[in-house]
Amino acid sequence: MGADVSVVAASEPGCHIFNDFGCGFEAPTVSLFFPTPWLDFGLPGTSGLNKYYLVAVVALIIAAAFWYFTTRRSKVVPGRGQSMAEMLVGFLRDQVTRTTMGKEGDKFLPLMVTLFLFIFCMNIMGLIPGLQLPVTSNLAFPAVLALFIFVLWNVVGIRRHGVGAHFKARLVPGGVPGWILPVVVPIEALSNFVIRPATHMIRLFATMFAGHLLLALFAAAGFYMFNPLSPMGAGFGALSVGYSAIALVGFLVFTAFELFIMAVQAYVFVLLSSIYLGEAMEGAH
Amino acid sequence: MYLAAEQENVLRIHWDEFTFGLIAFLIILAVVYKMWPRLTKALDERADQIEGGIARAQKAEAEAEEIRQQYREKLEEAHREYAQELEKAKEQRAAIIAEAREEAQVEARRIVDAAHAQIEADRQQAVAQLRHEIGALSTELASRIVGEVLSDSAAQNRVIDRFLEELEQSESTQQAEVR
Description:
The complex is a heterodimer. Helices cover 68% and strands 0% of the residues of chain A. Chain A has eight helices and no strands. The N terminus of chain B is likely disordered.
């Protein structure tokens, strides 16, 4: 909470509700997602070394360490950590790869585990006190993963069916009369090769972006409304504390909800990746 | 994809962040792939052990069933043998009893026969002796009465025979009269 609040509050130091110098509430803006770089590379199209790097490194360490330490001493009789890793793998295998790709999908299971772990850890960074910035709220990070899946989708399809068959299956839907193809093919091309990877990355990005903005709004509002020493009187001071309490409750509720969304979005991203790869393996339908 | 100049565009993708994200992703992917065999190995071993355990349990169960079957057969056989032995013993008992009874009957008959023979012999002897004594007595009596010594043994015998025949006839007539 502190980081967001300090970011917002920094713009109007000491500005609270029921003040006597007429300053109003300023909602947090998208500037939240443009942290000032500590080190500017001075190159076009770069952001410089900013908070996203730090948070991404933390996410990377957590994801890698989780996997490393839970599976390092894998035994027949699993310990607590190994059970967690097995639960994750079992869940992704039964709910994601097996349902979308069948038994063949088992070879993509490590990839799906990686995706889920990495995305979930990047998402959860939005709730870690002191960091509080979901890495996936920066489109660059979902884009890496979505483009990776897009490339893999093409590679799998081409290796399985050949270049022609892969692109034909993706561009020419079966059972469509010939005269309509000039319309359908561009639509399919746009849909499969542009819109789909774009939505794949933007879905994750947008939910994390909006969720974080919402939490920041609650935190900023709660901070703004907390003014027990209001110059307008003790009654207004008490009222401001009541408002602030409502904002705090909202913040806590939405934090719990956000945690759920973070897990769901990681799952959705993995599920969609799996569906795309399954489609590429299947070929034309 | 977007220039740094567009500062507040939320849909920006900065190349440096993109590259960094890719590196982070590949590091985690490498860790996951590196550790993957350990987990799958453990899982496979567990599956093996469970399957082995199931197979062992099934085998043990089959063995137990077989042994139980054997016991049951043995028990049945024992029962059957017992019944047979009992039957045989009964038969033997009956046979022994029958044999003993037959032997006893034979023995009894033999004893009775011997007794009969003895009695017959004694009677014969008594008859013979009686006849002899009666002959001698009657001869003496006759010689005394007649006063004549019947030296001629042939004539003597004839006389005795006739006497006896008369005696027997008189006996039979007496008996007939009695009757």
